[in-house]
Batch of 2 targets.
Target 1
Amino acid sequence: MSETITEPLLHQEPEAGATRRMTLNMGPQHPSTHGVLRVVLELDGEFIEKARPEIGYLHTGIEKQCEALNWQQVITLTDRVDYLANLSNNLCYSLAVEKLLGLEVPPKAQFLRVLLAELTRINSHLVWLGTHALDLGAMTMFFLTFREREDLLRIFEMFSGQRLMTSYIRPGGLALDPPRGWEKPVRAFLEDFPSKIDEYESLLNANPIWLQRTQGIGILPVEEMLEIGITGPLIRAAGIPLDARKMTPYSSYEKFDFKVPTETGNDVFARYTVRMAEMRESLKIVRQALEGMPEGPTRAEAHRVVLPEREKMKTQMEALIYHFKIVTEGIAVPEGEVFQVVESPRGELGYYVVSDGSGKPLRVHMRTPSFGNLQGLPNLVEKRQISDSIAIMGSLDFVLGDCDR
Amino acid sequence: MKRFLRRFLLLDLLEGLWVTFRHQSPDQIATEQYPSERPAVSERYRGAPRLNVHPETQETLCISCNLCAVACPENLIVVGSVRNPETKRKDLVHFTYDLSRCMFCGLCEDACPVDALELTQDFELASYTREGLIWDRQALEEGPRPTQYRQ
């Protein structure tokens, strides 16, 4: 960051006769930067000549902290990386550790993971839609989406005991069996939600203000997007069906029938359309997971990895010994390194995990979608007005916790 | 022409207003009147910790195995015990739980082999001081004692 402060961008003396440019700090407390993003804008009147996002205000050292914790304790930190899509992060880390262990998760756990990951996607898109529309002046959306999000958070609370920091998906399966009566709220949500999406679209799709502020804004050439490493709904709105769920199926995604929605508009409106379509597709996946839910255990048969069932642990000496060993020493993950990719609501989320054979990871690195997507911001807002930059930033849908780790 | 008419007659606006208006009906209210109307948290809710005692003898169930302290990612549990020379068991002397650093992940609860430590459904944990959030054995067994106000 010190490098950018000495940059001439900030201390540029206006030349005599030249138009005076103004340097303006947007953020880190600006409400439309959704967190603590600071954008240094160089302005020519109302137009942005140059923009530079300054990240690092939410750097919490999660990657380093992972090295100090046991394999199973790291799960609590992965929740906090992307706090709007915590189950995707749980899933990615668990898949990476399972890959190292060579562990196969029972089909029921896989289906439940898919179900929860897709509900997380809807949850995250609802927050995005609410805040994005709020930034552009459509305040009603915020209330409507947050009301539906509440239903989802209740489902997450029912499963895991927490609304946001779920820590529900663990290496080897799930933390607990699904609660009794879990299907009822999920089915109720599936029943209600399609009409709610129609309601959102009836509010926005014909809204002239919304259309004028989103259509034809925030266009970046596709080649440039690919160079920067933009993934997720942004690249799909540019017409490229890049989706880790289709390309490298994990957690039995290959058994599900779903489409990868794409658009060719490549503007803010196209990203909105793609995300709305994705919510519909997610509902389809949730329904399929619910209908085709296999029977069986939700945790793998691996006594060195998964905590034994409580009944067994209280009655069998061997199970109790493994219980003590797992808690005190951690899971013994074999030496090696692995990179696992999942499709988080924001794009391609990757966990690079290195093990030295001990009870703690040697290195956990996250390739987070927000970081990649945010790199497109300078090019996207160049030569646009400040008000457009709000729409563009909203369409990028970054989470600063995800970006800074 | 149709589009022009729609815009001229403000039909888009009226449609939007109608959606907003529909949500005025009393059965659409999502707000909870918090202190008088408490939310029902789920069965598995991870809230205030409790150290369970035997319902008849009132003796603690904790066997001072220290597993919860080891399992905690934040190292906020401190278990103190002395070896009893007669029974050859560890007797619990003190147990502190620092709620100011707790993130309610529930790993301690999972680790406890005798179901002594439990995260309950109690979610009202506010305290006026930082020290008030460090719960000792008594607070963990009996539950917190919030300040009572009378009018």
Note: Chain B touches chain A at residues 6-7, 12, 15-16, 19-20, 23, 30, 41-46, 65, 67, 70-71, 73, 103-107, 110-111, 113, 115, 119 (CB under 8 Å).
Target 2
Amino acid sequence: MASPDSISSAGAAGGLSTRPGVLKRLLKNRSALIGGSLVLIFVLMALLAPILPLADPFKSNFLAIRKPPSELYWFGTDELGRDQVTRLFFGARASLLAGIVSVLIALAIGIPFGLLAGWYGGWIDIVISRFTEAMLACPFLILAIAFAAVLGPSLTNAMIAIGLSAVPIFIRLVRGQVMSVKAEDFVEGARAVGAGDLRLMFRHVLPNTLSPIVVQSTLFMAQAIILEAALSFLGLGQQPPAPSWGQMLNVAKNFMEQAPWMSVAPGVCIFLCVLGFNLLGDGLRDALDPKEN
Amino acid sequence: MTTLILRRILIAIPTLFLVSLMVFALQRALPGDPFLVIAGEERDPEVIARLREIYRMDDPVVVQFFAWLGQVLQGDFGRSLRTGEPVLHLILQKLPVTLQLATASILVAVAIGIPVGILAARYKGSAVDYSASALALSGLSIPNFWFGIMLILLVSVHLKWLPASGYESIFVDPWEAIKRLILPAFVLGNGLAAFLMRHTRSAMLEVLRSDYVRTARAKGLDEDTVVHRHALRNALVPIITLTTLLFGELLAGAVLTEQVFTIPGFGKLIVDAVFNRDYGVVQGVVLCTAIGFIVMNLIADILYIVVNPRLRTG
């Protein structure tokens, strides 16, 4: 008799591992390539910031307060004489960290609840779905602000707030995917050879719902970076003197006439990074879309 | 149709109940004792005890919840912990400011998003389509608070064409109001325009592929008539309902736009409340926004049933 694990989920739709051409298609996709390159640049910026010979991002230099861009300071200096380039590099760490951690929080809560709702249906589904709808009833940023107000202003709390406010999106997504995958023949096959609910959910169903989760996570990274920047811009995220792009803009808006350069570079970074994740997400969706195969 | 609408309304009730439960839980999760804020510097124990009694803090949580829910149902959303003013009063005071901005932004979004979406669908695969898609993607990726700062720098600081901040009611001084509205409405409308453009394009493409459009073309009608008289009408149905759903996006966007342009609206109310630790206002604003959003969802659903003949008769 076949063991539950020997029942392959290879025929199911949606599994990442079941698509040998995914990487090939991804590399051929122009938007994925541009997006991936932009993301890679920012990841390198964040990783290399402490290694590169950059100035101290925290150290004030009162002889260089609000200096315009020059050969010495490519993007100028801020209100405390700190080099903008250095702070942009270190700011990338805050933005990417916020994106990754909030996606992980949303996934860690969203996947189990989505699985439960989609797999068991009935009253479990009704309760989870109603809570999801109630959370979705509140606009994203307002919900994040409310959470940030409860948790207090800091980067960590901003990440938790962003992650929590994204939970309903992932619950809904996983629930829908699970409902369609659980009706597939291979699930019935695995059940027939004795697989229990947990094994079926985590070994057979979940791997086959990964494609849309990966796409949604990439697109949500873009949203999380904007949200972190927005919360920091409002003073509810990264706290000074630690740099983040949103927090740099929060300070820059007070010096729009005296030092307009302070506002330009952080915004360009947010825009390009978000654009990168949006392009990569779109490209991933095209590469993983069953209709494309 | 009436049964369908009634069913939609009934479905909204448990969602509203859960939203109120979540807002109540949020209030209880607040760090520290909120009454210390109201009690002021002296923190008189007698005052705090009296406040706890008024707010039924010593009752079981379930009793507290239903008592609070009863008040909400009577239109009492609580009071500002700072000023003692009713939260609903504060919200109603600020709402017209945000509604003025939201209306102008929707106009900007519709004026840009729908025509560009139609053009992109009509000339699919052409330079027009690619430019429109790039524009939409940029619109979705640009942080609107930064876009606002850039526009202030260019239009207000450098060119000195329009004021950089402030608010004026359209009913008091229309010209001044329009001058102060142009920049924030453009900033807030930009992201929504991108969203509308993408949806209009895909809705139009769907309709342009349908049989009746092919028949219209086969009858010898010119492309303009096919697009505007036959395809657009049907493509607009989902777009109209979608526009109603933009309400939530608008409110969230308004928080940041109002902050950049110093507009004393709904968004600024919640941000100021967070910094003043005025949890009563934060809670009231979240609840009001959620109720508004659910009602707008309901309107979108009903509108969809009303404009869709298949659902109307079904």
Note: Residues 52 and 173 of chain A are 41 Å apart (CA to CA).
